[in-house]
């Protein structure tokens, strides 16, 4: 079996590694400052642009703040592309979104109360 390794424009492996029949919305395997990507059935890797994010968000509440992506955004992009959102990418986005709200993303800057 010949499995292609998908990488971002920065050379960082993507969370999705495998064959696709429909576009897959995934993310870089990277902490905090990761970007979203689309893996197409023809094996092309495309970075999700701010313009695409704006287009799919429409009148939705803010689903993208700085480098945090709400998991619903991945689902909206996938729906727009008639594709799928990668489950692991959804989990990473959900975890980062929650951690950003709890101020745990920079443990050296924030301390939990004793």
How would you sum up this structure, described in words?
- The protein is α+β, with helices and mostly antiparallel strands and 114 residues long.
- It has a domain of 79 residues.
- The chain has three helices and six strands.
- Strands 3-2-1-6 form a four-stranded mixed beta sheet.
- Strand 2 and strand 3 form a beta hairpin.
- The model has no long low-confidence stretch (mean pLDDT 85).
Computed structural class: alpha+beta
**Total strands:** 6
Radius of gyration: 15 Å
Query: How large is the share of residues in beta strands?
Result: 5-15%
Helix fraction, binned, reads 25-40%
Total helical elements: 3
Following the backbone from N to C, one meets helices and strands in this order, namely EEEHEEHEH
Instruction: Give the biggest sheet.
Output: 4 strands, mixed
**Can you tell me the residue ranges where pLDDT is under 50 for at least 5 consecutive residues?**
none
Rounded mean pLDDT is 85
Strand order of the largest sheet: 3-2-1-6
Distance from first to last alpha carbon:
53 Å
